[in-house]
Amino acid sequence: MKSDYNVEEIIDLLAERTRKFTSNESTSITYEKANQLLGSIMYCLNITNNEAVYHETVEHNCLERLFIKGGSMLNENQEIREWFEEGTNMEDENLRDLLEKMAESNDIEYKIALLKHHVNSLDDFGILMEACFIEDEYEAVYKSLSKMELEILLKSIHLKKEDDEILHSWEQYLLSACK
Amino acid sequence: MNDIFSLIMVSKQKNELENILEINQYTCNFGLSLNEQEVMRLLRHRVSCLKEQKRVEFEGGILELLIKEFCNSAYIYQDNYVQTLEALQEIFYICKNESLDELSDDAILQFMRKRFEGKCQGDLDYLEQICLEDLCRPVRFAESELLGGVEDEE
User: Fold this and answer.
1) Of A28, A149, B48, B141, which one has the greatest count of Cβ atoms within 10 A?
2) Where are the beta strands (DSSP E) in chain A?
3) How far is B13 from chain A (nearest CA, A)?
4) Rounded CA separation A78/B66 (Å)
5) Cα(A156)–Cα(B138) distance, rounded to whole angstroms?
6) Backbone torsion region of residue B103, taken as left when φ is above 0, otherwise alpha when ψ lies between -120 and 50, otherwise beta
7) Rounded to a whole number, what is the distance in angstroms from the first to the last CA of chain B?
8) Which uninterrupted H or E stretch holds B36?
9) A15 contacts in chain B (CB < 8 Å)
10) Could you report the per-residue pLDDT of A112-171, keeping only the tens digit for each?
11) Which residues pair with residue B56 across a beta bridge?
């Protein structure tokens, strides 16, 4: 059973979450926000806190892998409404700035880099896919995602479909590509 | 729990010390430099500012950015360099909180720099007052309007 995590690694995870949360525009955050981010990290880590999952996941003894696995398990349990939790959606202003940057660019690699660098939730991902990418670009975006990210995405699309919600073209594309 | 955040800040000081000493190579062009003791004093001051404002900081910290932004100021010279940086750090974090984190670091730094050189002519008390009035107040006002609040007209 893994219970004593390496504090340095947790701090690094927190710094990474903070960087994404502020879109790299602020070096500091309030205690309140830091507590929320830390809470979400610990929650994800604790989900994986059993021997079987620990050995399965942490071949390289990397806390980040454990955290990602925890996030994935959390999503499975909560029917994946958001990537990790509502609190990790980008601030409205940051999202607007990112939308403008991506909409102005025709460089697919640049747009994917921005997407991967800034986006931390399914909500934000969906908004940007809808507004900034055309059908010819979908394949490149999906190729850039990890297996776990694709699984989460697919699962959320299936849930939407089950709820009879209208699917966007980028969602339909992924469904048909995975058939 | 909040004490942990202060400890995080302290644990990162060693790396920052080296980074800030390296900036001396650039600031010496403007007749400014910091020795190890002075940098440690500034870093300790930053930790206490962050604690006071209930904030936690990662990735380099604001001190490096403040030094780069202000080192060519007409109102900063070697004798008041450390004290000015201490005050600027303090004003910066107050602004972050008072602007409800709606403004980016760059936006606040650029505003501070412009007013410090212009209207304030190097007066740090006046700078703090102006930052709160001209920079943070509109943000808070806009926020309260969005929330349907009524601004006191007095």
Assistant:
1) A28
2) 28-30
3) 14
4) 44
5) 40
6) beta
7) 40
8) helix B36-52
9) 58-59
10) 888 887 887 778 888 899 999 988 899 999 988 877 677 778 878 888 888 888 899 999
11) A29
Interface of A with B (CB under 8 A): 11, 14-15, 18-19, 25-35, 93
Matching residue, tokens 């600031």:
B27
Scanning the structure block, which residue is given the tokens 């403040």?
B66
Whether A29 and B56 lie within 8 Å, measured CB to CB: yes
Q: Residue A51 carries which side chain, given as an amino acid letter?
A: E
Give the 3-state secondary structure percentages of chain B, helix then strand then coil, rounded to 5. 70, 0, 25
For residue B106, the chain A residues in CB contact (below 8 A) are: 25
Are A73 and A48 spatial neighbours (Cβ–Cβ below 8 Å)?
A: yes
SS3 A28: strand
- Residue B71 corresponds to which tokens in the numbers above? 């080192």
pLDDT at res. B13: 66
According to DSSP, residue B103 is labeled S
Summarised one tens digit per residue, pLDDT across range B6-31 is 666 666 666 788 889 999 999 999 99
Residue A48, H or E segment: none
Which range scores top for mean pLDDT: B13-22, B117-126, B144-153? B117-126
Partners of residue B55 on adjacent β-strands: A30
SS3 call for A29: strand
Query: What is the reported pTM?
Result: 0.60
Whole-number Å distance between alpha carbons of A60 and A58: 5
DSSP A66: H
Tokens of A14: 């927190």
